[in-house]
Each structure stands twice: as structure tokens, then as C-alpha cells.
Batch of 2 targets.
Target 1
Amino acid sequence: MEKKQIVPYWKKDRKKDIVNEFAMAIATINGSGSATANNILLRTLFRMGIPVSGKNIFPSNIQGLPTWYTIRASADGFVGRSEVDDILVAMNPSSFADDVSKLAPDGVLLYADDIGTPITRKDISVYPMPVKKLARDANVSNNIRDYVANMVYIGVLTVLMGIDLELLRQTLSDHFHGSAKAVEPNDKVLMAGVEWAKANLKKTDHFRVEKIERTSGCIMTDGNAAGAMGAVFGGVQFVAWYPITPASSLSESLNENLPHLRACPETGKDTFAVIQAEDELAAIGMAIGAGWSGLRAMTSTSGPGISLMGEYAGLAYYAEVPVVIWNVQRVGPSTGLPTRTSQGDLTQAYFLSHGDTRFIILIPSSVNECFEFGWKAFDLAEHYQTPVIVLSDLDLGMNQWMTPAFVYPDKPFDRGKVLWEEDLEKIKGKWGRYKDLDGDGIPYRTLPGNRHPKAAYFTRGTGHDENAEYSEDPVVWERMLQRISDKISSSCEALPAPEIDKHKGARFGIITMGSAEPAVEEARAILAQEGIPTDRMRLRAFPLSKAVKEFITAHERNYVVEINQQGQLRQLITLETGCVDELISVAHLDGMPLSAKWIYEQLTAREAK
Amino acid sequence: MTDKNIPSSAQQLNAVGLSRADYRGEQSTLCRGCGHNSIASQIIAACYEAGLRPEEIVKYSGIGCSSKSPAYFLNRSFGFNGLHGRMPSLALGGCFGDITLKGIGLSGDGDSASIGLGQFKHLVRRNLPFVYIVENNGVYGLTKGQFSATAERGLKLKKQGTNPYLPVDIAMEALISNASFVARSFAGDPKQVKELVKAAFSHKGIAVLDIISPCVTFNNQEGSIHSYTFGKDHEDPLHEISFVPARDEIMIQDFEEGSVREVTLHDGSTVILKKLEADYDPTDHWQALRCLEEAQKNNWLVTGLLYINPEPPSIYDLFNLPDTPLNRMTEKQLRPPKKTLDDINLALR
């Protein structure tokens, strides 16, 4: 296949025909019900075979403040954030002037024609839409009119850009699971928009879409739903959670899906329990209690919740209790920017709690990986008898991404070393909860309900010996904590390995993690095209595999690209590998996902020095 | 009444073939004379006499002197000594592992009335079948004698001065959170403690036992309402309480007609309340509240079964849980087949 030249999105010539390449912002008022319209538009483009992503840039507010839905379409498959919008759908009078001023040169403006603000820009294509009139004339009931009015701009865009109308209507029907009552008013307004546009609009811009085949084998969903689904297939049995943006939808998705996906195949009864706790202190307490009693237990939260969970996480580390903790990161400290994305909780996660602790961390960078780590986390937690923290973030967790279809787990459950009655009978009851019998630092455990008279032991956060007896003996303390630390270290090669992509003649290495990846990949492709090939290593877990140091030392310079202020990934890599001079921090946090342009500019500027 | 189940010596076997020694714990490291030790002894006696299997009981605690005590009884039971004020959440999660087991939590007034007041009340509100004992002494022992939230206003303690705040009443907090079993007792009244513990284990819901348990080191001085002398002088039992396990026939003719109240518990066992001075109906929520209010005003240590709703819906009733304990379920029962995932993938196209 002939290699197509990539045009960086910030160097686009908008005066020429542009097919399947755009960044669109839909500016609405929070709570005005545009989510349905936007999702249908996004999924239709996806079904047309065009790689897309949809990001909701929203305020911490229920109703009234400005919100933007952004869609990035890219035939090349680059669906990271673009800070330049080619197309603006302006539905919000209060942000109108500012939104229009930020539109790219020669961009496209569609707007609700009741917005009275004058438009001073001369370089853009302008399409006023009679949104109110069309919604009113469509004769839908008053209580939903304002919501379905958003379908007007979908109809206009369909005509303007050449979106497949039949596919769009099918997607609309699928969205409401075929419910005529819901579909009909939306369809009516959609078609009103379509008819009006056909009759009244003269296209003056150059953006259009057409069917291609770049999304086959892919699905589209968000990371929280994917993580929840992963947990479902990982056999999650106990979920305790407390509402917090941007993590709530993960547990809500479990609550919604477990009942129909996880009834016992033999009895039809529930094989799980989901409990909304009174706070995060209780959510983690419940999950750890359940993990201790032998259930695949988890909680999901964000930074503030993790802060509250620290003490119990430390107890679970020392008492060796498996539990899975999802942190869908947002911008902290404190309330910070609660609806904006961040990778700022990495060092917190690794050293969570007081005393000497170190936690196994998994870092998914795609929706597909959220699913994979969703089930894998339980195997790791139970195998190593320790908390496993999955670090997602708002961008990954709450936004819509296309991703390869979920892959069914390729491994059976790993329940770790558990002794039941018959096991204890065989060894005549001779065991100790914290004895390292196999030399791998992982002891055996028993679970409540085991009727063997020697099964029980007393779990505590205070000093204890190999038989779980209370101990303040300095030698015992040191020995126990060393074994636990060694146990965590020993996990490094069993965790998801760093994903390495090498280019011949690479000038330097790039190290990144999580949702920073799409922008990094786009920047790398552009750099390579400009004669600067690079190697990339994406870290997927802590503690680090030995491959990490090998990669670093194979390059004179490694740029560590991440979404936080302090360069936390760079800090931890230095701590773990001892590498300092080879690592250059490229860290950035303003609440928005990283963009390829920013990374490209950072790297070229630093390389020019 | 003679209970045929109480053996004359510790060597004798109970209804499930175990001796009293099978219910032992480690040697207590609490102060000699501590009320908590007496309660631990009564928990041992209650479980032994009621014929509960230690393997079917799980112990939980928070942090404090009280929370150390689960190590001093039922060695053959699993136990988890958690975090300060956060035993309730730990216990709730732990109990879901196998709901056929019985849970017991040991907490103190610092653990449940200060740092853990929220978790205490939320566990009550959720009605987890669970024996929740608060060993209430009005003082922080392990940190050497600071006021707790149940200390009475005006209490004078060495180094601490005079307590300026009104106390939290554990039993009242439980009642207004709609606890389905609320009792108050006194460590100096071992028979009552024992019978209440037995009844609590048979209750299908949260059973809160607020037991005044004097701290002999920091708060046992004359006049303190958490002292032995105050308890002995001011205890005002509502009734004489006896527990009769489900398997035993109640010899009601042993009692004078009209002199007792019977409450049948969910598992078929019965609590027999012998009337003392006045009749007291423990199924009357309003009366229980008034009783506590009056006791507070008059400085009485009212003890006994303050309130019971014998058939409340418990948290387990909110779930459609199978007979097999969740922690014994297999991969086959827990991982949906590949076809299910294929369908999910299809729906996300």
C-alpha cells in the first residue's frame, strides 16, 4: 500500500477538499440534552468506517454552564485531542463570541439563528440554522422539544458533510433500542433539519465525509464501561463505591450490567453484590472485608476518594488482602478541576498510605485495555494477595473511543493460594498464614467459612509473625515487611509488559503511559515523516519490568511524556531504575488531554537546543 | 427454670459436641479487672451454651482496648482487627463472603461514638445480621485516659480536667437509626450480658449491645457513670432475660402466668423476659425511646432488651443470593461464556 502523506492537523489547508479529517466542537448549554444527538453523530461516523473519538469538555455543573462536545475524525486513525476546531456548531449564546473567535482560519460555523451576537469573522463559512422554528414546526410534545431540537444540527451536518442518512437513522433507532416513542420525535426533527438544509443551504466549505473501511473489528465505548465489563468477565463478586466524578459511571455500569450478565448459570441467583457506601472510607473497608473473605472485590473512585482510602489500602498491603481499586483520575489537589483529566495520582498510588508500602499499579491506555485490566486485576490481586490499583483517567474513562473489540480472557482464574478443608486435612492442619513455604514470598490463606478447626487465624494491622500471632519483635517485623516488599518486586515480570515500538535509526526514546498515548503516536508519525524517527515505550504497570531500564539505556535521551505538573512518571522511573541523565520530563497539566501539536512542539524545540 | 444445656463442668460437651475449651481465646493483655475481660468471658459462655460452632462465627473489631478483645475469645473463629472506627464497613464486606456465618463486632465508645459514628449508624441503617457490641467506658484507654464522646458532662479526669460536652448515647443513636435490636447492659451483670449475646446471635439483623464496661485504670472513680460502683448502685434492669435455643422446649409453666413476655426470634429461638417492677414491651419503639430519655434524666443505668423487631428485612434480603456461599463459587459460575462477550462487542458497533 502506498504510504499517504500525513498533514498535521494544525497545518491543514481548509480551502481545499478535505475528506474524513476534521475536528468539530459542538457548543451547548450543560443539561440541554445534546448527549443523544452527539453520540448518534459520533457512532454514525464510526459505522461509516471513519476513525473517530468524542470528548465531552464539561463543567462541574448540572445545568446552565457552557459545555463542548468535540469530535475528531481522522482517516489516518489519529483521534487524540486537537486544540484547533475546523467546524463549530454553536448552540450556546453565552459562549458564542469566544467560540467563534477560536474557530480555525477558513473554518465552518453552524449556529442557531436565534443567537443575536454579530459575527465579525470574514474568513469562515457561516450557516445559520432555524433550530427553534424547525423544532416547533415538527410538532413534538413540549416537554421534550428543547432536547430533540439538537437533532436539527445533526440533520444539517448530514446534508452539509455527506453523512450517510440511512445509517444515521439506523443508529438513532439502535440508540433507543428501537423504542418508537423515543425514536420518532428525534427522527422527525432530524428529518426537518435534513429537508431544510437540502432546500436552503449552499455549501461554501470543503469538509466532507465518505465511507471507508478503517473501523472494522472495532467497537466504540468509554473506558469506565469497558473496565466494568472487564470486571464482569473477571468474576467480580463484590463492589462497594461512593459517587465521584469521573469514576461513578464505572460502578453504575456494574450495577446495570451484573444483574443480566452474571446470574448463576445453575440457580439463576445473583453471584455478586453491589453496595453504594456512605463514603470512600467505607467503600474501601467493605471491599477489603470482602476480599479478605474470599470474594473478588473492588471499588472505583477518583483522587479525593483515594486519599480517603489510603489507610485501609496500607492495612490491606500489610495484612495481605486482595482488592482491586480503580482510580479514574481527575485534576487535583482537593476539588481541583473535578471534570477535567489528569495523570496526577501516579506517585500517590505507588506509595499510598503511611509506612512502607508499594502497590501494584496497572495503567490502561485504551478502552480495550480497560477491559483487559478489568479482569486481569483480580487475578493479580489474588495471586499476590495485595491491593491492585488501576489508574485510568477522565479522558479515557468518560469519553467515547473506538477500540479493537474486547478479547475474551485467555487465561482461567488465578485464585492464588487458598486452602480449603480438604487441603488442610492433607497437611494435618499444619500451616501458618504468613509462612513462605514456596520461597516466592506468597503465603497461603484460608477463608471464613472453612470449617476445619485449624483454618482460622486472626488478621491484624499490628505486628504479626508467620502464624499471624501478635508480635512486636523487631526481627519479626523486619522479616515480614521485607518478604512483602520482595513479593511485590517479584510481580514485575508477570504484570502487563511495557509496549515498545522501535523505528530504525531512532533519534531518541519517548516514554509515556495511559491516555497520553494517542497524542504521542500522532506526534511520532509526524516526526518520522519529517525525518526524525523515534522509539516509544508505553508503561503499563508498576513495579517496572527490567525491560524498562534496557530501553532507557539504549537511548541517549528519553522524553517522558505525561499529563501532570511534576513529571511523576519520570520521578518514579528514576527511583526504580536509577536512571537520571537519560530522562527528560515533558509533563503538562491544564485539565485538557494532551495534543500531538503540543508534544511535537516540545520535542522539536528541545531537540533544536 | 433449669437449662438442660448448661453442663456442670467445663469438660462437658455442648449440643454440638464441643467443650468450653474449644471456645477459648488467647490470654488477655488488658488490665486486670477490665470490664472487657468479663464481656469476653460471657461471649465464650454464650457461644458454648447456645451451641454455636466457632468455625461459623467471624469476629471483627476496630481500634482501641475493646478492639483487642476478639483475640481473647473464640480462637477457632476467623477474626479481623481493622481500622479505628471502620470495623462496620470491614464487617459488612466480610460477611458477604459467606452469609451462612454469624458475625460479631467488638467496638468501643471511641471507636463507635467518635471516629466511627458514621460507619456505626450506616451499618445499623443497612441492618446487617451482626452482633455489634460497644464496650462503653467513657474514656480512651490505649492512649491513656482522654475523654471519649460517651463521657458525661462534668466528668473529672486526671490530666484532662472537666468534660465540657454532652455525651453521645449509643443505644439512643442505634434506636433512632432504626436498629432492629437494641440492648444496654453492664459488665458487672454477667448473666444478663450472656443472655443478651445469645439472643443477639439469633437475631436476623443488626443487634446493638451497648455494654457499660468500666475502665479500672482511667475511669472507675466514685461518681463516674461508667464505674463499677455506679453501675452496681444504679443498675435498673427492665426485666430478667433468658434465652432458649430453638431446639429446646420452653417450659412456660415454670413461670407464673402473666409474669413473662416471650419474643420469638427468626431462627425459632425464644427470648423470655421476666417482668420486674413494671411491664416493659420491647417491641414498642416509642416506649424504648422514652425509657432511655427518662433513664438519662434520672441518672439510672437502665439495662435489658430495650427494643426488638424480630422479623426485619435484613441487607441479605435485598439481594437474590444463592445458597452456596459466594466465596465458594467457581469460575464456571462467575465468568460468562464467550458468546456473551461476542454479543456485547456486536452491540458496541
Note: Chain B touches chain A through 59 residues (CB under 8 Å).
Target 2
Amino acid sequence: MLPLWRGVVVFRLVAWAVAAGAFIRSWDRYPDHTAAIVLLLLMVAWTAVVTIAYSTHAGRRSRMAGYDLVVTVAFVAATLLTQPLTDLNESAPILTSMWATGPIFALAVERGRDGGLIGAVVISAALIAVRQRFGDQEIFNTTLHLVAGWSLGYAATTTRRATAVLREALAAEGATAERERLSRSIHDGVLQVLAIVRRRGTEIGGAATELSALAAEQEVALRTLMTSRPTSVGDRVDLAATLRLRATSRVEVITPAGKLMLSRRIVEEISAAVGEALSNVVEHAGEAAHAWVSVEDLGDRLVVSVRDDGAGIADGRLEVARNSGRLGVAQSIRGRITDLGGTVDLHTSLGEGTEWELTMPKARP
Amino acid sequence: MGADNAEGPTVTRVMVVDDHPMWRESVARDLATRGYDVVGTAADAPGAVRIAAAVRPDVVVMDLQLGSTSGVDATREIVAAAPDTRVLVLSASAEHEDVLDAVKNGASGYLVKSASLDELDAAVGRTADGDAVFSAGLAGLLLGEYRRLHEAPDDAPTLTERETEILRLVSRGLSARQIATRLTLSHRTVENHVQNTLRKLQLHNRVELTRYAIEHGIIDESG
């Protein structure tokens, strides 16, 4: 916006110089030189006021352009003191000349198209009123004012929008850069120290083991935080990134490189099913069990596996487990995956842990 | 053990590359206590390439984020200059594409930095023996990469059914021994299958690089 305001200010200054030059050139046609000179001096004073106002941030945000319009109309009216109405009605030069159109541009820049049009209408009306005449010249000038006000206003609005978009883009870029900078410094510092604490703690043993476990948890949490990026584009969500958020020091999440974009509903259902399977691991395989969540892309289908290294269930006891409600969660998981047109397989045997295998089409059934 | 040393018993010679001094020294010290000969350390890619050429380590333990330089580039150059040198990536689990790139460019294993010292010790030993060090995460990345190549219409490598099956089990956290039991194969056979999935990808990558170089006039077809 700044260049447009600069244009408005420069135009006003040049227009005043033109008005002063026109006055000197038509010296003989002014009956009252004193009044004309006083008016020109007042015009330059007002020009200075608006120049300062339009050059400051606060001035541009106030209603300065509106006041400018009112004052300029007063100046146009005051030209009647320098020239008799009869002369103005003929072809006598009007003292304010082009200078009077300044507020049109200021309003256009400040308020857009509508501001420009209002300014053009008011200034044109004032000039017509002073000359008491509506001829070809007035029609031509009015049209020119309207077109200028409209187009500058349009340009100002477009520029304002483009500036806003650009500012947003720059802010987003800045945020990304800042995030990368933070990530790098976390990677170079905190993470390394946590990793060392974890390693040394395990070696020392005893109470240090607990510290080591705490460090390990924070290490995974920080890594996950650092690599979690916006995971959705419209209604498509990245399944790989969504599942990676479930990684802890005991849960490893294995995905292909890159994104795995699927519809939001499918991702939510899969993520919820994986969450249930994982809480089942903690509940039945024990806090110490490790789990692996893996996602495999088979082109048109997906296979998601949740496996733990807990005790597992002996073949004959599977029915008992089912009846005791231990596999109640299976119904919930099965429900979610069946709704997606997929299937659920549960593999378990004593000493081999438990593995859920969820297979489903990538597109909605 | 890895490369044959002319002077007496073979102690595995290791080099540690990481831009963070505290971590680098900690890993170097830990490996030394486990009986490895730490012959060098480096903080960035050019340094790693230069020092590796001078000290000829059996195993390079490589971080991928080396300040403004890349561990992937260092891996490619080190393996190209000395095919006997093996690179084990020890990296934050976050950088998926980087890990895949490093493996395609010749790294023979990948371990996350959150692995324990015992795991690191075992991984370096296996790398020196010429085995691939596979985490579940790397298996998942490889499965994804083969899937991507499968959709590309050119002469990309593919996995056999058995290889797919084994990679899938690795990606679900099963150890080679557990997989061997489940599929009633020998432990060695499982290891070989896993290594093959890696070698095919590395070979493909070399062919692609060479083709790219010829097409862009970087190297002459006749020479």
C-alpha cells in the first residue's frame, strides 16, 4: 500500500505547483491577486498537513481522506472569492485546478472503489456548482474523475488483498523456518544429551535405570514432536504421520517413507483401531511389552499390523480369553475395520505375543 | 571379522562420524570398551571421506545429519572408494528419506540412536561380518520403496514372494531367529534373503546413477 500513498502525496504536491504556475501564467485574468495568493498559501499549508498525515501509519488509518475531501470542497468554494461567478461561468481559470482532485485518490486508496467513486462525485459536483455550468468540459472532467477514482480504488483493494496474502505466506514461511531452526538446535543439543543419559543410565544400573527410562521416553516424545508436520490437505489425511504420533519408547511405528494420503474417515477409523489394539497390549501383555505398529501399502489395499512381544495366548485358551472379555476389544476393532470394507485377523500363540492384522481397501467401499 | 589385517589378530577397525562432539565421543568410547579399535572420527562429510581414505576402517558408524553436509553423500563416496568398508547408519529415526537414500547408496545397515549399547555393539559386529543390520523401521522403508519401484514401468528390481514375506515379518519387529522358526528356515537363509533385498536396491541405484551420468554427459559411454 505504501507506494500508492506515496503516489497520492506526490500528486498533491505536483498539483499544487501546477496550480501556482497556472495562476502566474494567467496573472492578468485574476481581478484580486491578494485573495488568490492567500488561497494558494492556504492550499500549500493544507497540502503539507495531508502530506504528513498520509506519510504516517496513523494518519493513513484515520479518517484523514474524508476530512481532506471536506476541506478541499471548501477550497473549491473559496475560489469564488478570487474570481467573480460570472467569469467562472465563462472560461476563467479556476485557482484550485487539478489540485482539487487529490481527495479522490486519497479516498480511493483508503476505502477502495467505493471511496474513489464518492470522492469523484463530490469533487465533480463542487466544481460544477462553482462554475454554475454543465457543459462538455464538465461531463468530460466528471467522467475522468469517476474512472480515475474507480480504477485506483480497485487497484488499491487488489493490492491490499495481495499484500495480506503475501504477508500470510511470509508468516507461514517464517514459522516453518523457525521450526526448522528449533528442530536443528534440539537435534544438536537436547536429543544428544537425552540419548547419552539413557545409554549411561542403563550401564550404571540401579536407580539410574529409572532416569534412563525417563530420558528415553522424552527422547521419543521430542523426536515425534519435531517430525510431526501438518498431516492433512483438505479432506485427505496422512495416515503415516498420524500413526507415527503414537510412537513411544515401547511402541515403534513402521511406515513407508513419504506420505500416505487417505480420506479423513479411513485414517480416523484406522488410528482409533490401532489405539484400541495398543491399549489392549498395555492391559494384557504388560507395561514392559514392546509393540510394533506397521503399515504396508499394497497398492489398492493397506495392511496395518499391531504386534506385541508379550506372553501371547495358548491356542486352547483363546476361547477362554474371548469369553472372559479379554478379547472384547476385538469386537470394536472388527467393527471399525469391517465398516471400511476390511478384515481383521488375530494371530496369537503362547510365547509369541499377539498380532492384529488389519487389511482394508484404500478407498471407501 | 571384517577386512583382513596383515598385522596379527583381526580387531575390527571402526570410524565414528557425527557432527555432535558429545555424542561422537560417547559412541567412540563405548565401542572402544567393547573391544573395537576406533581408528578415527569425523564431524562432516568431507572430513569423513578424507579420513576414511586415510585410515581404511572396516566399519563406519555414520550419522546422516552432519551440519550442512550430508551423511548420504559421505556414504556413497566412502563405499565407492573402498568397497570393503561397510557403513552402518546410526541416526535419529526421523529422517526417513535420508535413511532410504543412505541404504540405496551403499550403507549396509541402519540403527536408530535410541538403540542400547548392546544393540550397537551387536550391529557393528554384524556389519563387520558383512551382514545387513535391519531394524523393523528399515524393513518398512524397503517394502515401501519396492512398492514404489513396482509402480514404475521400467526394469526396476522386484522382491520374490519369500523376500516380501521375510521383510514384512522384520517390519513387524520379529528377529531373524523368530522368522527362521516361524518359516522353518535356517537363520542363515533368512539373513541371506534380507541381504538380497538390500543388494538388489543398491545395484539398481548404481545402474540408475550410471545411466544418469551417461545421459547427462558426466561420463563417456565408451570409457
Note: The first strand of chain B starts at residue 13 and ends at 17.
